[in-house]
Design goal:
Blueprint lengths: L1 H14 L3 H29 L7 E2 L2 H10 L3 E4 L2 H7 L13 H11 L6 E5 L11 H21 L5 E4 L14 H11 L4 E7 L16 E7 L8 H11 L8 E5 L2 H12 L3 E4 L3 H9 L26 H10 E4 L1
Parallel strand pairs: 1-4, 2-3, 3-4, 5-6, 5-7, 6-9, 7-8
Helix pairs in contact: 2-6, 4-5, 5-9
Length: about 325
């Protein structure tokens, strides 16, 4: 099944690069996907009042705990829930596995004081979200609400995992303020990024400009969890010297969700930072849709593109890399 999902994902990316392929994708969405979304959205409208109430910290509360208490953050979205149930469809090129499922569930159900658990705050009105995102939420919960209700604790408080989704799909929302809040987290700190091969978080923009220093550990762009123990072993081997007291920012799909938790359990601050950098790039460009970004892997806009950074930017980026895994 994993191979089927990976094949379908690669086929979609290939089709998106030609006119005829884009037509096939459009027909699929029109004839099959859109009617199915409408069906599950209707189902959601009939069952939404039956769902348990989920409680959240405000974004201001989350930022305060990240900055002042150095809490860590592990985030969950619909992809992570699908990996828990072992039927994710090759998102991030990550295959399903028993260990990935078990560890994600362990983190989600944890109650460690040092770690904030983030789940999407999409059980309410989605006040600032676009109609498209609201419809997508409705369809998702119409199909999978029982999974969330089974896994989430109505007596527990969560952070909003969409705190890193601060621009695309939002209306009348102060994205600039949220980006400034994020920058305060690493202001003057040594940052260690653990990211995929072409993620290049903060490269080519000023998102990390106020950090004291930046080091990078480069992990595989796809199926990163296959190298999970190698990544964690390298962190363990270095966190008492070269990386002591640093802030770990992890952009590595579902692997980041688990890794941020495990690093926190070692006594260090780690944040599953997700797509924040790409959201910032879209914000800087006033983008009205998900667009490719020069020199970066954007899985939501067709993957990698050929245009790269200038030599000076690449040299700075390469000098920040301390390990390839």
């Amino acid at each position: 099944m994993n191979n089927i999902y990976l094949h379908l994902s690669k086929t979609k990316n290939k089709l998106s690069k030609s006119k005829s392929g884009k037509l096939i994708i459009t027909l699929y969405r029109t004839v099959y996907a859109r009617p199915l979304i409408k069906f599950y959205a209707l189902k959601f409208s009939l069952i939404k009042n039956r769902m348990n109430k989920i409680h959240y910290y405000t974004n201001d509360e989350t930022f305060s705990m990240l900055k002042n208490e150095h809490k860590s953050l592990s985030r969950f979205g619909d992809g992570e829930i699908a990996w828990i149930y072992k039927d994710a469809k090759a998102y991030f090129g990550q295959s399903n596995s028993e260990e990935l499922s078990r560890r994600l569930k362990e983190v989600l159900l944890s109650n460690e004081n040092e770690v904030l658990i983030g789940v999407p705050d999409f059980f309410g009105t989605l006040k600032y979200h676009s109609k498209e995102r609201q419809e997508s939420r409705n369809a998702h919960l119409g199909k999978y609400y029982y999974r969330w209700m089974e896994l989430l604790d109505s007596n527990k408080k969560y952070s909003d995992s969409l705190i890193t989704r601060t621009y695309n799909g939002l209306n009348n929302f102060n994205s600039k303020q949220i980006f400034e809040q994020w920058k305060k987290i690493w202001d003057g700190r040594n940052v260690v990024l653990i990211e995929g091969g072409q993620t290049r978080f903060g490269v080519g923009n000023d998102l990390l400009e106020n950090a004291y220093s930046v080091k990078r550990i480069i992990a595989p762009s796809e199926n990163a969890f296959d190298k999970y123990h190698d990544i964690l072993d390298f962190v363990k081997a270095n966190n008492n010297n070269a990386f002591s007291n640093d802030l770990y920012l992890i952009a590595l799909g579902p692997t980041a969700t688990i890794l941020s938790y495990d690093i926190a359990m070692m006594g260090y601050q780690a944040i599953d930072i997700g797509h924040l950098d790409i959201e910032y790039e879209w914000y800087l460009r006033n983008a009205t849709k998900k667009i490719p970004i020069t020199g970066k892997y954007v899985n939501e806009a067709g993957g990698t593109f050929g245009i790269d950074f200038d030599d000076e930017t690449l040299e700075k980026y390469n000098n920040e890399i301390v390990k390839f895994i």
